[in-house]
Design goal:
By secondary structure, the protein is α+β, with helices and mostly antiparallel strands. It contains two helices and five strands; from the N terminus they run βαββαββ. It has one domain: Heat Shock Protein 90. Helix 1 packs antiparallel against helix 2.
């Protein structure tokens, strides 16, 4: 398997750093699972960059990808295609991204997470 990683990210604060570990770790883990049983050559690409006031995490792999009809469903807690997993990884990524005011999406075998470098102040309810 070939793994490539690129990062052009300036220093970030501790909270964003912890969120990035969660997002990147879960996306890479899922990518490794996706290419593990697939055809050769297997590859995973990871890119972390700054874009405006956001950090953009993109993980692509040579796995089969996600059907367009499931592009939103895969982020729901409990959704899984793996026999011995609980469907928490992508749900956790979605939670981390949206809690910061960002988002996560999938297009085939490309996952993109956008995390604002600073979080918006909470609005009183």
């Amino acid at each position: 398997m070939t793994v490539s990683a690129r990062s052009a990210l300036p220093e970030v604060d501790g909270a964003l750093s912890a969120d990035l570990v969660t997002v990147v770790g879960n996306l890479v883990d899922n990518a490794f699972d996706a290419v593990g049983a697939g055809a050769s050559p297997a590859w995973v690409e990871v890119e972390v960059t700054a874009e405006g006031g956001d950090v953009l995490v993109t993980v692509r792999d040579s796995g089969p990808g996600i059907e367009p009809a499931l592009a939103r469903e895969v982020f729901a807690q409990g959704y899984t295609t793996k026999a011995e997993h609980h469907g928490l990884g992508l749900a956790l990524i979605h939670l981390v991204c949206t809690r910061r005011g960002g988002a996560v999406s999938v297009d085939g075998s490309t996952f993109t997470a956008r995390l604002p470098r600073s979080t918006a102040p909470a609005v009183a309810r």
